[in-house]
Amino acid sequence: MSLGSLLRLATIDVRPLRRRDVRVLFSGQLVSILGSQVTFVAVPFQVYLLTHSSLAVGLLGAVELGPVLAFAFLGGTLADARDRRSMVLLTELAFAVLSALLLANALLPAPLLWPIYAVAAVQAGLFALQRPSLDSLLPRLVPPEDSGQRLPERRTPKAE
Asked: Are 134 and 88 spatial neighbours (Cβ–Cβ below 8 Å)?
C-alpha cells in the first residue's frame, strides 16, 4: 500500500457537505450534540450537588432506561410512518423546551430534585423517538455516488 492511499484513508471526505441539506443537518446536529453533552454532564452534577448521594446520581440511569426501552420501537415505527424531518425538528424543539425547564429549575433559590428526574426521563424517551428518524436522514440526503461507497455492479442476465 502506498503512502498516498494511506493518506486517503486518513482524510475526511467532505464532498457530501457540498449539498445544502447536508450542511444544514450537520450544523444543526453539531449544536444539538454540544447541548446534549452539556446536559449529560450538568444533570448528574446538579443531582449530586443537591443530594451528595451517588445513589441519587445512579438512579438517573434507572429513570432514563424505562422511557428508552418503552419508546425505542415506537420511534422506529414513527420514522417509517411519518415525515422524518418533522420528527427530528419536533423532538429538537422539545429538547430545547426541556433544557429551558432545567435552567429555570437550576435558577431557583432552592432547586427541586423531582423536576430533574422528570425532565431526564422525558429527554430519554424523546431520544428514543428521535434516533431512528435522525439516523435515516443522512443516507436519504447523500446519494451513493457522493458517499464514497462502492456501488454494486449491475448484473445483466445471460442470454441462453
From this structure: yes
| Helical pair 114-141 and 84-106, crossing angle rounded to 10 deg | 150
Mean pLDDT (whole number) for 13-36: 88
Q: Phi and psi for 111 in degrees, rounded to 5?
A: -60, 145
* Rounded Cα–Cα distance for residues 60 and 96 (Å): 20
Evaluate if residue 15 carries a pLDDT over 90. no
Write down the residue that cell numbers 424517551 correspond to: 125
Scored b (16 or more CB within 10 A) or e, 62-90 reads ebbeebbeebbeebbebbeeeebeebbeb
> Residue 94 corresponds to which amino acid?
A
Task: Count CB-CB contacts under 10 A for residue 38.
Answer: 11
Residue 134, number of CB atoms within 10 A of its CB: 21
Phi-psi region of 39 (alpha: psi -120 to 50; beta: other; left: phi over 0): alpha
CA–CA separation, 73 and 11 (whole Å): 36
Where are the extended beta strands (E) located within the chain?
A: none
Describe the chain by its helix, strand, coil percentages, rounded to 5.
80, 0, 20
